[in-house]
Amino acid sequence: MPTSLEQLTSQAIALSPEDRAHLADLLLASLPDEADEPLDDAWDQEIQRRLKAVESGAARLVPAADVHAEARKICQR
Predict the structure, then answer these.
(1) Taking a C-beta distance cutoff of 8 angstroms, is the pair 39, 32 a contact?
(2) Spans of all domains in the chain
(3) Which stretches in the chain have pLDDT values below 70?
(4) Which alpha helices (H) appear in 1-77, and where do they start and end?
(5) What DSSP character marks residue 14?
(6) Residue 13 has what pLDDT?
């Protein structure tokens, strides 16, 4: 009898974090390359949009230290 997806999921969740990450990498690598193409195109378009916004001065850039400080404030609430 084949193993069900539920059984595989339970077994995978029980693995160490390192083994789960390795399994995730293996599963992602097993997907056909075509599955990534629409996502790659979308990301390329988003990267170009953001780059143009930065270069034109339309984007408001925030230093990482400020972002981290704000995140810490939010997490402490």
Answers:
(1) no
(2) 5-30, 36-76
(3) 1-2, 35-37
(4) 5-13, 17-30, 37-56, 64-76
(5) T
(6) 96
